[in-house]
Amino acid sequence: MSVLLIEAFYGGSHKQLMDLLQEEIRNCVLFTLPAKKWHWRARTAAPYFMQNVPASADYRILFASSVLNLTELVALRPDLGKLKKILYFHENQLTYPVQKCQERDFQYGYNQILSCLVADIVAFNSAYNMESFLTSIGKFMKLMPDHRPKHLEKLIRPKCQVLYFPIKFPDVSRFMLKNTLSHTKEGLDAKGIGGTSLLMEMPFQEQKCETANIININNLDQRPGHQKVESGDCCPWPERQHLCQGEGSQCATPLGHNVGSLQYQQRPLHIVWPHRWEHDKDPESFFKVLMKLKKMELNFHVSVLGEAFTDVPDIFSEAKKTLESSVLHWGYLPSKDDYFQVLYMADVVVSTAKHEFFGVAIYIYSGREKKRERKRKRDQLINACAAL
Q1: Is the pTM for the entire model greater than 0.90?
Q2: Nearest CA to 91 among 109, 103, 75?
Q3: What is the mean pLDDT of residues 157-177?
Q4: Domains of the chain, with CATH numbers?
C-alpha cells in the first residue's frame, strides 16, 4: 500500500482515472465518495476521509483530484501530510464556466489554491488547464476586499506539470472485420487461400494507443517545475476491452448494412452527443440546431449519451419529446462496450462545450476515426481478394 488514492467525486473521468491507476500501479489502495452533490463533496470530503482512511506506515504517496480540499485533510491527518502529495486537476474552479445570473463561489477556487500550496506536485490534464489556472490566480485573489496574499502564482508554478489524461482505446478490429466479412461472403465465402478462414489468415496486432500518456506516479521527477510525461505508441497494460467477444456476439453496422453499400450510405446521418448533462456543455445550442433540422423535415438519427446528475437542464426533456422519432439512444450507457459501439456507429460526434479542459469523449472518438481509416485499407485488401 505505498500509494494512497483518494477521490472525493468518484464518477466520470475522475473514476476512469482512479480505476486505471489502481489497475496499473502495484501496492495501492483507493478511497472514494460517490459522484453526487459535487459542491458538498468539495466542501466536506476532508473530514470523511480523515475518519475513513486508516493510518498506515506503508503509505508513501498520496494522489488526489482537486475536488478534495487537500489542505483540510493534511491538517486533520498530520500523518498524511508527511507523504509526497500529488494533486491532479481535471478542471479548475478559477475559469470553470458558471451559469448565468449566478456569482462564482469564491470558496471553491480558493480551496484549490490552498491545496496547491500544500501539495508537492500539481498535475494538470492539459497545458491549457494549467496555464488558465495559474494566470488567473492574481485576478481571482483581487476578489478579496483587503489583505490579499501576494505572489501565489510564483509559489505554485514550480510545482506544476502537465500529465495528459491516459485513455485506453478499445480494440474494435474484430467488430469491424465481422461487418466486412458478412457482406463479402458471396465473392469470397469468408475463406482465404486453401480454404482457411479469412479471420484466421488476417490476425490483428495488439491494439495501440496512439495518444495515450501513462501516469507513472512512482517515478515522478523530483525536481520542482519539471514536466515529465511518459508517452509511447503502445499501451503497457493488456487490452481487455472489445466490442465483440466470442462468436455469439451480435456485431453489426447501423441497420445491419455494410459500410460500403449504397443502402448504408443513404441511411440517415447518425449524430452523437456524448457529454455530461450540464450547462457548461451547452446542450441548448446542440438541441436548438437539431430541432431546426427536424422542423425542416430532414432525416437523421441522434444518440444523446453522458451522465446526468441532480440538476439536469430543462432542454433535455423538451428535446427528447421533440426528437423522439429520431432518437436511437438516450441517456447514460453504463457498459463501456455499449458506449464504444455507439461511438463506432456514429457518423458525427458533436461538442458544444463552452469550456473544455481536455474532452475525453471527443478524444476517444478521434481514436475511433483512426481505426476506421485502418479498416478502409483492410477492406481494400479483402475486396481485392474477392475479385481474384
Answers
A1: no
A2: 109
A3: 77
A4: 2-162 (3.40.50), 168-177+267-387 (3.40.50.2000)
